[in-house]
Design brief:
By secondary structure, the protein is mostly helical. It folds into two domains: 3-20 and 138-203, Endonuclease Iii, domain 2, CATH 1.10.1670.10; 30-129, Endonuclease III, domain 1, CATH 1.10.340. The protein is 56% helix and 0% strand. The chain is built from eleven helices and no strands. Helix 2 (30-39) runs antiparallel to helix 6 (83-100), helix 5 crosses helix 6 (83-100) and helix 9 packs across helix 11. The longest helix is centred in the middle third of the chain and has 18 residues, at 83-100. The radius of gyration is 18 Å and the shape is elongated.
Length: 211
């Protein structure tokens, strides 16, 4: 890996998108971020925030979620897609956090990923935003744009995560997540990327094969 290129990419991202630690998902309690991230699978953050604006007041505690009527919960989150499975995961995760972790969200990757519906992506969102533990979160934007930039040759999210952990400085991991997601929404969209106005174009292997 050309580390000079990596440095240039990070410098450009810092210039274009000064790091804002605010999460794209709305939450107040740590467990609420876990729930919101479970809901965000195959769903936009904007839609999740609309749903949780009503969901969290209706179920203000983990106990309320664990005891929620399954059918009612399904209806509450229907618009996020895959709502039947998500409702099961949310109820069971709430129950396990209460029974195994005294109602406190665990910070280690092993205990987080042991919760139903929680993969490494969800766990790393929680670790980064709740516990400020440097983590690489490989969502669709990070996966797609990291590949286009030539920072990874993998398509498997877990392999991409570990490869990025090797080449990016740990101090930049959380910022990189946020910056790439913002870039993917504003410039490097999946359907019609604005390559002609992209500040990373000359560093992008997909746009510039010599990069």
């Amino acid at each position: 890996m050309n580390m000079k290129k990596v440095t240039k990419i990070l410098k450009t991202l810092d210039e274009q998108y000064p790091f804002d630690s605010k999460c794209f998902l709305d939450y107040q309690e740590p467990w609420q971020l876990l729930v919101a991230t479970i809901l965000s699978a195959q769903c936009t953050d904007a839609r999740v925030n609309i749903v949780t604006a009503e969901l969290f007041p209706k179920y203000p505690t983990l106990e309320a979620l664990a005891e929620a009527d399954y059918s009612a919960l399904c209806e509450d989150i229907r618009s996020t897609g895959f709502y039947k499975m998500k409702a099961q995961h949310i109820k069971e995760s709430a129950r396990l956090i209460l029974s195994l972790h005294n109602g406190q969200l665990p910070s280690d990757i092993e205990n987080l990923t042991a919760l139903p519906g929680v993969g490494r992506k969800t766990a790393n969102v929680v670790r980064g935003h709740i516990f400020n533990i440097p983590s690489i979160t490989v969502d669709t934007h990070v996966k797609r744009i990291s590949y286009k930039l030539g920072l990874t040759k993998h398509t498997d999210p877990e392999k991409i995560e570990f490869e990025l952990m090797e080449i990016l400085p740990k101090s930049h991991w959380i910022a990189y997540n946020q910056q790439i997601i913002t870039h993917g929404r504003k410039i490097c969209t999946a359907r019609s990327p604005k390559c002609s106005s992209c500040p990373l174009a000359n560093l992008c292997s997909a746009y510039n094969p010599l990069a």
